[in-house]
Design brief:
Order of helices and strands of chain B: EHHHHHHHHHEHHEH
Largest interface: A-B, 44 and 40 residues
Structural class of chain B: mainly alpha
Number of helices of chain B: 12
Number of domains of chain A: 2
Helix content of chain B: 55-70%
Structural class of chain A: mainly alpha
Largest sheet of chain B: 3 strands, antiparallel
CATH class of chain B: Mainly Alpha
Mean pLDDT of chain A: 72
Number of strands of chain A: 0
CATH topology of chain B: Fumarate Reductase Cytochrome B subunit
Number of strands of chain B: 3
Number of domains of chain B: 1
Number of helices of chain A: 9
Helix content of chain A: 40-55%
Oligomer: heterodimer
Distance between the termini of chain A: 135 Å
Mean pLDDT of chain B: 92
Strand order of the largest sheet of chain B: 2-1-3
Largest sheet of chain A: none
Order of helices and strands of chain A: HHHHHHHHH
Radius of gyration of chain B: 21 Å
Strand content of chain B: under 5%
């Protein structure tokens, strides 16, 4: 009778030995790979302080299609296969979670207005230089580097050394100053803009016609004077 | 032809301050516009005159500091011009640039004159638009200086004010700069030099003096007052030398051309930039 166990063990060697060789030859897992794989722990890994937010912050909820922020309910059932309308995206660990064909899109397909600010147009910053790589956490997510509690240290200070939390309250993607969005989100900017526009309009509305009428009036006076050959009283 | 009688209107200090303001203002307008319009082809070529985007900022900041220093020196000089023992007359008198009720009356009378409904107002030494031009610097320059310093030192600013105040500062700085540039290059240039009675140039601010004949028409109340006070003789001065006139005509028109160039390009390219 043939010893089937010998055949089996020879077959096992054929699989195991190359696998062991691969293990030796391939590079070991690095933190960068782990970062991409782990959405939840990623921002902790980058933290230079305690790194244990659980001690003093609320833990994230599970990232399920049923997502809601406490006290905020959208629709009868807070569920959407596209995750487009039910979530408050500014609080997600992966802010683009559930968006169809996300891998094929570019940031500016949806965030065109955000590409018009000074940081983008003047300093030529790319989105990822501040918002990080995938998965891009929402700015209000507790582990996000863009969270206002640590944005100044993690993001702003990369260029503006010594920046504080106050400094980081500068609005990078400020709304168009005269827009209704600005009125809602940044009223000081909105009223400053309209004040300056009215000041500009008022100054010009008075002085440009004033200058033109003076010009015409003096021209007529000059012509009349030339015609009469003598100084005219007006 | 006998030389025209010239009446002294501006002191050497006045003229130096005006020249200083002219030079710093045009430098700030050009460097500031080069940065405001940097995303356009015109902005890039303008910035290249100053060594590029970064160098234009360095020049803008230094000239800004010079402007602030000039403003402080002028304000101190202004204090020396006040007759402190006769304060009321000094501030509200006819030689003062402080606006008074008479200016509003002159404005109303002039509007009536525009439409042929009244005789022209008899202006004293300073007309209401000249007073406006003077005091406009006192609202524009401090606003530009404060917002300019805020954006120049954003970290220090954010220690005193919230960081979002830098958004406001940047908006105010640009809006006020656009207002100042538009006003100077349209209204001030037109009233100063291009209207029929001033064309081709109102030489007073460069020569320091104005022909008596011209003043008798433009500022009759001042001339009457000088005659009444017996100061007309002492106010007379020599006319400017020909070479000096040639120099300031060239200089004045060069600045005017630069200003109009900035303004026209600014209007043309404004559609390609946003204020945010």
């Amino acid at each position: 009778m043939r010893d089937v166990t010998q055949h089996n063990s020879a077959g096992a060697h054929l699989v195991v030995v190359p696998l062991l060789a691969l293990l030796l030859l391939l590079p070991g897992p690095v933190s960068g790979q782990e970062e991409v794989a782990s959405a939840i722990r990623r921002y902790k890994d980058r933290d230079s302080s305690t790194g244990v937010y659980e001690q003093y912050e609320v833990l994230p909820r599970r990232q399920l299609p049923f997502v809601a922020v406490p006290g905020v309910r959208r629709g009868l059932f807070p569920y959407s296969p596209t995750a487009a309308s039910v979530r408050v995206r500014t609080r997600l660990a992966d802010s683009h979670q559930g968006i169809k064909f996300y891998a094929l899109r570019r940031c500016e397909y949806c965030h065109i207005e955000q590409t018009k600010d000074i940081h983008t147009t003047r300093a030529n910053l790319t989105c990822r230089q501040c918002h990080g790589g995938e998965p891009i956490a929402s700015i209000q997510h507790y582990y996000s580097v863009m969270n206002p509690i640590r944005k100044h240290a993690y993001i702003c200070s990369k260029c503006h050394q010594g920046s504080s939390a106050s400094f980081a309250s500068y609005i990078v993607h400020e709304p168009a100053p005269g827009s209704l969005t600005a009125k809602k989100d940044f009223p000081v900017l909105y009223y400053t803009y309209w004040f300056m526009l009215i000041l500009f309009g008022g100054t010009m509305a008075f002085f440009i016609p004033h200058s033109l009428i003076v010009g015409f009036r003096e021209l007529f006076r000059k012509k009349r004077k030339d015609k009469n050959g003598a100084e005219n009283s007006d | 032809m006998a030389p025209k009688t010239q009446i002294k209107r501006f002191s050497t200090f006045d003229r130096v301050f005006h020249l200083y303001l002219m030079l710093t203002f045009i430098a700030q307008a050009a460097t500031g516009f080069s940065r405001l319009f940097i995303t356009t082809s015109w902005g890039k070529s303008l910035a290249s005159l100053f060594g590029g985007y970064e160098m234009a900022l360095v020049i803008h900041q230094w000239v800004g500091i010079l402007m602030i220093v000039g403003f402080v020196i002028h304000s101190l000089y202004l204090m020396t011009r006040i007759d402190w023992r006769n304060l009321r007359a000094s501030i509200f008198g006819p030689d003062s640039l402080v606006p008074n009720l008479g200016d509003f009356k002159h404005l109303w009378q002039r509007i009536l004159w525009f439409f042929g409904l009244s005789a022209p107002p008899k202006f004293n030494r300073w007309a209401y638009w000249e007073k406006f031009d003077y005091w406009a610097v006192y609202w524009g320059l401090p606003l530009l200086a404060i917002t300019g310093l805020m954006t120049m030192y954003p970290l220090a600013t954010s220690r005193i004010l919230p960081g979002w105040s830098l958004n406001i500062a940047a908006l105010l700085h640009r809006a006020e700069a656009i207002l100042a540039v538009t006003y100077i290059f349209i209204v001030h240039f037109f009233i100063g030099h291009l209207r029929p009675s001033s064309f081709p140039m109102n030489e007073g601010m460069f020569a320091g003096s104005v022909p008596l004949e011209e003043l008798a028409k433009e500022k009759p109340a001042w001339i009457e007052r000088l005659k009444k006070e017996g100061k007309l003789e002492s106010a007379q001065t020599a006319p400017p030398a020909l070479w000096y006139r040639v120099v300031y005509y060239f200089f004045g028109y060069a600045v005017l051309a630069a200003g109009v160039y900035l303004l026209i390009n600014g209007i043309v390219y404004s559609q390609y930039i946003g204020l945010h």
